[in-house]
Amino acid sequence: MATKKGPPGTIAAQNRKARHDYTIEDNIEAGLVLTGPEVKSLREGKGSLVDAWAGERDNELWMFNCYIPKYAPARNVQH
Fold this sequence. Notes:
Blueprint lengths: L15 H6 L14 H8 L9 E5 L2 E5 L15
Antiparallel strand pairs: 1-2
């Protein structure tokens, strides 16, 4: 059975535990560059931000330890 798609701009993954365990002083909204299989995997609700964190490297903000599993139907094109 297909999963119900949300409207454009729907949050695909969030780390609720981080909001509970830490005091969030400021929110910064940022975008990610994702390929087709990554997007489809996130739309199925399979992404995890449990141990994810962001840090600066070469004047850019990078995400570390984010888990996005392979999208099974996309056999030839994976991240």
